[in-house]
Amino acid sequence: MASNMVLYWGSGSVPCWRPMLVLEEKKLQGYGSKLISFSKKEHKTEEVLKLNPRGQVPTFKDGDVVVNESAAICDYLEYKFADQGTSLLPKDAAQRGMVLQRMHEAQNLNKGLIENVVHYIFRTKPEDVNQEHLNEKKKEAREELKRWEEYMQKQGSGTYVVGKEFSMADVFVFPLLAFAVRGKLNLDPFPGLKEYYQRLEKRPSVKATWPPHWSEEPAGKDFFTGV
Amino acid sequence: MASNMVLYWGSGSVPCWRPMLVLEEKKLQGYGSKLISFSKKEHKTEEVLKLNPRGQVPTFKDGDVVVNESAAICDYLEYKFADQGTSLLPKDAAQRGMVLQRMHEAQNLNKGLIENVVHYIFRTKPEDVNQEHLNEKKKEAREELKRWEEYMQKQGSGTYVVGKEFSMADVFVFPLLAFAVRGKLNLDPFPGLKEYYQRLEKRPSVKATWPPHWSEEPAGKDFFTGV
């Protein structure tokens, strides 16, 4: 069935990494994997635009079904392959509610780290960076990370974002954390997240989907020093 | 079962309206409905903060299960009450993929209308408004609306966001459209959306959850003239 699937993705893109993790966890290896180059603007080619008029990745196709929003792809795959590979949304409604909560709450972590800090640095000429504004945004990112650290602390070591099983919440949280670590986030003030990160980076689905250009250049641009 | 549920919500809040629509559609009337006042900062009371440390609404509780992110509440309710009331996520995987896509794609409409235009106007002193910037953002909002107009046009009149049935995609799109119409968006250039809007505003779940202060003051602040 995976042979009917095509995923267009970019290396290091957090939204692309989510469905890639789901495809691995659901044992759907063998899907058509199309790595696009952002610098060559390959997400704006006719081939991608035909499937995704927004010209963004991820762009995903399963037979005739086209699903492009990362959360939609993840939910679609979990539903269609509910009993295959890792169960990413618990069948028990209460447990599922908790996983859904953290999965969607991760948008706050995305906002704190990516939208408010990374996008600001990317979109501002170095000479125009307002250090006071950036420091404020870094402080907000720290507060957000503290919140997730508390979640980890409350659960105790050896756990995932929600309880003792890897779930859709990890699919949404881990890539953000990995992006931040590569961007020089120091996890020492967040020991729960640090233990989680070091454990998860060894997980087979994570290793299989690790952004290839990160393997070549493990240290990224400095976004998060001082967070 | 609805008697175990409590929803804290604010009048006119798009994220609050989504779970309210789901509660109506799933025939869960009778839940504890707690209208909070934003101006009195009732979303920052101890009662809310105990359930939602972010101090935001919606805040939702079903027995011991606390779920606060709007998409998480909606998915939780649809899962727990799959066979009750309106089916909001189709059982057919291909159809479901399409609904999930539009449900999550609605974040672009949210960004175009609310984040880029409403938040900018709210957070900028009238004398500091950069008209050129605002016009650019209004133009982007128009482009986004055109995309959704095309979706409606392709399906023909009398349809919902995805096909012939009301779904989770409508739960995410309609409140944004209603917010925009109250903020003086002229729907005449978008006849498909206009027909859809006028039909949906008469839907029982929509009427039952219409923001109370909108009924008292049908005309809101002008955000969208010129879009």
TrEMBL record, chains A, B:
UniProt domain GST C-terminal: residue ranges: 92-222
Domain of life: Eukaryota
GO terms, biological process: glutathione metabolic process; L-phenylalanine catabolic process
GO cellular component: mitochondrion
GO MF annotation list: glutathione transferase activity; maleylacetoacetate isomerase activity
Domain GST N-terminal as annotated: residue spans: 3-85
Record-linked PROSITE patterns: GST_CTER, GST_NTER
Full protein name: Uncharacterized protein
Source species: Littorina saxatilis
Source species taxonomy: Eukaryota, Metazoa, Spiralia, Lophotrochozoa, Mollusca
